[in-house]
Write a structure and sequence with these properties.
This protein is globular. The chain has 50 residues and is mainly alpha-helical. It has 2 helices and no strands. The N and C termini lie far apart (26 Å). It is 42% helix and 0% strand.
Length: 50
C-alpha cells in the first residue's frame, strides 16, 4: 500500500517525502472519524505543505 502511494505521488509530480511529512503531521490532529480523502496524493497541493 505504501509503495502504491509513493508511486501515486511520483505520477502526480509530488515529492513523496514532502507528502508523507504533511500526512504524518496532519493525521494526529484529526478526529478519528474525520474524512482523510484530502490527504491522498492526488488531492495534495504543494501549497498544502507550506
Amino acid at each position: 500500500m505504501i509503495y502504491s502511494l509513493m508511486l501515486t505521488c511520483r505520477a502526480c509530480g509530488i515529492d513523496p517525502l514532502t507528502w508523507l511529512r504533511h500526512v504524518l503531521t496532519e493525521l494526529p490532529q484529526r478526529d478519528e472519524a474525520a474524512d482523510i480523502v484530502d490527504l491522498l496524493p492526488f488531492n495534495f497541493s504543494k501549497a498544502s505543505a507550506a
